[in-house]
Amino acid sequence: MAWALKLPLADEVIESGLVQDFDASLSGIGQELGAGAYSMSDVLALPIFKQEESNLPPDNENKILPFQYVLCAATSPAVKLHDETLTYLNQGQSYEIRMLDNRKMGELPEITGKMVKSIIRVVFHDRRLQYTEHQQLEGWRWNRPGDRILDLDIPMSVGIVDPRANPTQLNTVEFLWDPLKRTSVFIQVHCISTEFTMRKHGGEKGVPFRIQIDTFKENEAGEYTEHLHSASCQIKVFKPKGADRKQKTDREKMEKRAPQEKEKYQPSYETTILTECSPWPEATYLNNSPSPGFSSTHNSFPVIEGNGSPNHQPEPVVPVADNLLPTATPQEAQQWLHRNRFSPFCRLFTNFSGADMLKLTREDVIQICGPADGIRLFNALKGRVVRPRLTIYVCQESQQGRDQQQKHENGDGSGSTFFVYHAIYLEELTAIELTEKLAQLFSISPRQISQIFKQGPTGIHVLVSDEMIQNFQDEMCFVLDTMKAEASDGYHIILK
After folding, report:
1. What would the pLDDT profile of 53-95 be if each residue is shown by its tens digit?
2. 351 vs 331: CA distance, rounded Å
3. Can you tell me the distance from the alpha carbon of 493 to that of 34, in angstroms, rounded to the nearest whole number?
4. For 275-279, which contacts have Cβ atoms below 8 Å and span 24 or more sequence positions?
5. Nearest CA to 188 among 168, 206, 163, 205?
6. pTM score, two decimals?
7. Given CB 3.0 to 4.6 Å as the disulfide criterion, which of 148, 240, 295, 342 pairs with 337?
C-alpha cells in the first residue's frame, strides 16, 4: 500500500515541476520580447531562418560549380547579413582575380587539357543604368578620349594566353586559360563610381558596378561559344586611395555600434568570392556565324565583337587601312571578310588564302557575289580609298612661334622657316565634322571646343558655318590660334 501511495505523489511532483518550468520559459519569452520590442523582421533575420531560406531552391542544393573566381580585395564590413557583398576598389590599381578549377573528378572531361575562354566585364549594377548602358559608355568615351574602363595588367598576370582588349568595348577584356594550371589575372578599373552620378550639390553617392566573368569552351568548329559558367560581384570604384579610406570609415562605424547591431552585419572578408549568375546576354556568342574572336590555332587578329549591352545592336567597326595581304592564311582571310562586312560570303571563300583572293578579277568577284557586293568586295581587295570631298592643312600658331624663336636664338636670320602642317579630310563639310577632326588632332574632347572662327578682313572673327566650309577651296592652309572661352571651360579656335 505504501508503494501505491508514493507513485501518484511522485507523478504529481514531476508534473508540477514541468508546469512551473514551462510557465517560467513563457514568462522569460514575454520579458525578452515585449510588445514594443517585438519585430517579425528581427525574427526572420535570425541565422536559422536565413539558412532555411537559402535552401529553398532544391535544384541548387549540393551544387558544385565547375569554376570559382576570387577577387583579392576585402569586402566592406558595413553590409547587412543577407545583402550581397560590396567591395571597394581604387581607380587604376591592379587587383588579382584567381581563376580556380572547382570540378569534381570526371566532371567536364571534354575540357581537360584544353583551353577555355573567359570574358571579364565591368557593367552597371543598377537596372536603370543597364538599360542606358550604351549611352552611358558613349558619354564616358566622349569625356575620356583614348581611355578604357577596364584593362588587363598583363605583366603581373599568370597563366593567361592571347589576352584581348577590343577597342570598341571599353569595359571588356578576354583571354584563354588552362583550368589545370595556376591562373591569376590582374585587372585595372579606370572609371570611378561618381562619373555616372547626376551632378547636383556635390558629394554625390557613387553608383555600384559589377565585375562579371563568363567562361566558354570550344565547340566542334573550334569556336569558344559554349557557355560553361558565369559569376559576378558588386564593387564601387574610388579615386586612388579612396577605397582604403572608405574601408577604414566603414570599419570605424561598425566598431561604434552596439553588439546587438553588429550581429546584423557581415564580417569583412579578406577576399571576395564571385557568386554564380546568369550569363551576360550577348548575341555574338549565340549566333551561328563563326566568331572572329578565338580559334583553336590561337592566331593573332583583332577581335570584332558586339557591345555587351542587352538592349542595342553591335556597332559596325570600320578598320583603318585594313588591307588583305598576299601572305594571309585562309583563316586570316576569313577574319578579314568578317571585319569588312562580307560574312555571308565566308563559306564561298573557305579555302582561299590572301593570295588566292587578290588574284580574282573584277568579273570573277561579281560572278561569285553578285553585282553590288562584288564591286564592293573587289574595291576592298584592291584597297581603293575614296578621295575626301575637302582637304585642308592646319598648323598651330604656337608651334610657329616656337620655331621662329628657336631660329632667332640660334642666330639663324634666314627667311625660310620649316613649319609642320597636318592634313584634315572632310566628307560631310559641316562645322560639327570640323570640330571633331580638330579635337582629334589636339587629343581633346570635342566638347572643349566652344566655337570655331575664321579671321576675316581687318582681323574680325567670323563664325565658321556649314555654308562657309562648303565654300572653302580644296587644300587651303590655316594657322590655328586658341582663345579661352569666357562662358565655359572650353576654347575658341581661330583659323588664320
Report:
1. 333 444 444 566 889 999 999 999 999 988 899 999 999 999 9
2. 8
3. 74
4. 275/84, 275/231, 275/232, 275/233, 276/65, 276/229, 276/230, 276/231, 277/212, 277/230, 277/231, 277/232, 278/230, 279/214, 279/227, 279/230
5. 163
6. 0.48
7. 342
